Amino acid sequence: MPELMQGKCVLVTGPRNKWSIAWHTALALHREGAKLAFSVLGEGEESNLKKLMQEAGIEAPVVQCDASEDAQVAALFTRLDEAFDGKLDGLVHAMAFANSADLRGEFITVSSAGYALAHEVSVYSLVRLSQAARPLLNAAGGGSIVTLSYLGAERVVPNYNIMGVAKAALEATVKYLAYDLGPEKIRVNAVSAGPIKTLSAKGIANFDAMRKQVGDASPLRRPVEADEVGDATLFLLSPLARGISGEVLHVDGGYNVMGMMKQADA
């Protein structure tokens, strides 16, 4: 059976360590024959990623890029143009950030600077990367862009605060990008993952209790794992999802369909 992504070129942004959803997406893509490239924020992330790549037998360019800087994004896609012979089939947007102080207490206390920072890094980076990727995606005859969201975009999740507001903006951005890029055969979607034990999750108060509560209350009666989210992201990047755009695919064991439930104890 042919590999699902054989001959496809995909940029994966934001892998930080072995727990990252971005890394598990990369493993799924590699398994299905994709040619990969990675972007990371700095030297520490690059060092961690290269160790993981060596263990997994993945050879791919790794580029340091701060996606809030136009010049660095331009340099990233110049490198991709060379590595992928002028085409790109997929882009995984897996970056988000908020000040830890803005993930505690009341949302109403968020500062103007904290609000702007969360949206710049977590939302506008998708727009900036999509702008830069557009010519290479067009050269490939179209492609797929997938970003990562969470249920906090739709419902109030205590201690998620400004990140929930940013994820709501991210999901709206997905829809508008899908509309703009659809005529060019470029699909844009999001995966809304259940609580996953990542490095970022450590900044959310009572995360372990929340993950258990979501797992216990979901139809599948268990938490989801990062590799399950990676496989769903692979699906949206693949030709199997060629008729899907502007969607938010929930990978949370079905938790999003449930009604009112008791909150986990603080």
What does this structure look like?
- The chain is α/β, with parallel strands linked by helices and 266 residues long.
- It has a single domain, classed as Rossmann fold (3-Layer(aba) Sandwich), CATH 3.40.50.720.
- Helix content is 42%, strand content 14%.
- It contains seven helices and seven strands.
- It has helices at 21-31, 43-56, 70-83, 112-139, 161-181, 207-217, 226-237, and strands at 9-13, 35-40, 62-64, 90-93, 143-149, 186-193, 248-251.
- Strands 3-2-1-4-5-6-7 form a seven-stranded parallel beta sheet, sandwiched between helices.
- Strand 2 (35-40), helix 2 and strand 3 (62-64) form a beta-alpha-beta unit.
Measured as a percent range, the helix fraction is 40-55%
Q: What is the CATH T-level topology?
A: Rossmann fold
Which percent band covers the strand fraction?
A: 5-15%
Terminal CA distance reads: 49 Å
> Structural class, from helix and strand content?
alpha/beta
Question: Count of helices?
Answer: 7
Which CATH top level class fits?
Alpha Beta
Query: What do the pLDDT scores average to?
Result: 92
Low-confidence segments: 262-266
Order of strands in the sheet with the most strands?
A: 3-2-1-4-5-6-7
Q: Tell me the count of domains.
A: 1
**CATH H level, superfamily name:** NAD(P)-binding Rossmann-like Domain
CATH-defined architecture: 3-Layer(aba) Sandwich
Compute the CA-based radius of gyration. 18 Å
| Spatial shape | globular
Oligomer: single chain
Number of strands: 7
